[in-house]
Amino acid sequence: MAVNTLTFNQVSALLNEIHDQATGQKTIAPVDTSEFVSVATATLAAGYDPVLNAITQMVNRTIFSIRPYSRKFAGLQVDNQKFGAITRKLNIADKDFDNDVSFQLVDGQAVDHYIVNKPEVLQTNFYGANVFEKSYTIFKDQLDSAFEGPEQLGEFLSMIVSNASDMVEQAHENLARATIANFIGGKAVIGGESVIHLLTEYNTLTGLSLTATSVYEPANFKAFMQWAYSRIADISARMAERSELYQVQVTGKPIKRHTPKEYQRMYLYAPAMAQINAMVMSNTFHTDYLDAIGDAEAVTFWQDISNPDSIDVTPSYLDVDGTIKVGAEQNLSKVFGVIMDEEAAGYTVINEWSATTPLNAKGGYWNTFLHFTDRFWNDYTEKGVVLFLD
Question: For a tag site, which of 20, 85, 175, 327 has the least CB within 10 Å?
């Protein structure tokens, strides 16, 4: 079910599934987001350490293969004071104007200037959390035979700590990626003007019959992408207007919003951007222009690194009656981009802490545990548009 329950959900299985798809260990599969010239060989004719049975006893040179990893979609994260607990979001709905009674005065009658006109308020709520744990074991003496001294052992232990840190960093990234995938899937269920099929629109305007394949032919690509840029610029400009466009309206609570360019986020499919740079050779998608539209970020893949332009999710979304609904599975391809208000999707990390156990006197080791709680949200009352290259 959707995460909006006052519980802490153990979603390590979901995280592992998302992680496996994102890292190519599995091909794309449905993810229920309503619930983020020397060839190396693994063998060597030498004895192994007595604990891990993975590291050979000391040989000549050791390379510690680790490097810090920085998460993608970092712009989706906000501080936990903003969306860190049970959070309510208050909106004021527009009400109709009244006639100016000062031009309708009648002799012998009074004008009541105490007529009550209450504001029409819509409250939306964000709550629920997902908890995670990562641990690793450090041995006191058992690995000494695998290294040439305390300095090299220290490097190995540092590698273990860095690996755990990288895994946590990628966990945040992959669940943020799933948050965007849920937003795309929810928009697909809702439909309407928030879902734009670029090729369909272009073919209608030009009388052409381009496909997702033929559009990349040199004779077609430049003209189409120049038009696509103008279409994106038009969407961005429309989002800046105060209107009900590109957002869910809860029945009886018509909220008008505007998203100035500095509050817009844009995620575009990276391979298409690379082909633009290579094939169009113009300023059509120059960085300065992208920055002028909003916070543009290239997305290498949306869910599965082996099927980069596709998503397969069972999304949760906001219905017009103000309740959360779980939609049908959305197996979508040709996802080109997302343009949205900065408050339309995001996540926060709270209760992030670590602790180390005392030394196990009998076993000669200690464990370190890393804990963190993530909260993710989609707000369909904010403006957002999904672009497909079909």
Answer: 85
